[in-house]
């Protein structure tokens, strides 16, 4: 039986025809259906209609403990948990490359809505630690999204999803901020005065590493998506740069509420919310 290496190294006219047992996955959907369980350790039919995304293992554990459900995919690149109501949370890791990967793989499930629960740095005096940001758009500074759509295409959330999330924030007696966030692949930039000045000129409200990617790849894959960001640091101030201690304090004080709002929004939108329709430019 020929190996894949010999098949692809041979000239086209010498390559043997592969039977059905050796057939290659060749469409995006076929790849996603094969890879989503491989990356998460979770069968496709165990994913819910609505998805929470996070890059914090702690959020996954809190979710699983709250609903007494199993964590799937330990030892895999990504882990999941799904409650009895059919809401799934996925810890996809950190950064735009991982964000693009999970938004690509979710085409295998075709969820009705995806909400990213992430943290960001606050860049305005009006954004303090513990504030929530519902971004109206994200600047594509990460580069990853350029592989999906031209740079001129704005990175936008699904309005109806954000509207429902905003109602949940208010119902909990909290305020939130809106504005444009900047998404970057740079993890350590706080020392770079030139980069910091550029952020000021862009007049962005926050900075993170995933939001623009999730918005663009979600748009390319026709997945309704949104982001609820928790301000975890104030990086333009020397005393506001995130440390291990400050991040632990933010998690202890605000993570439960952050997760609670996401759970309520994505659970109830399927029951009470208007259908979310994917828009095309």
Shape: globular
- Write the H/E string, N to C: HHEHEEHEEHEHEHEH
Biggest sheet overview: 5 strands, mixed, barrel
Total count of domains? 1
- Percent helix: 25-40%
In whole angstroms, the N-to-C terminal distance is 48 Å
CATH superfamily: Nucleoside phosphorylase domain
User: What is the residue-averaged pLDDT?
Assistant: 88
- CATH topology, by name, is Rossmann fold
> From the 3D coordinates, which CATH architecture would you assign?
3-Layer(aba) Sandwich
Spatial sequence of strands, sheet with the most strands: 4-7-6-5-8
What's the oligomerization state?
single chain
Gyration radius, to the nearest Å? 20 Å
The beta-strand count equals 8
Main structural class: alpha/beta
Total helical segments? 8
Poorly predicted parts: 6-10, 12-21
Per CATH, the class reads: Alpha Beta
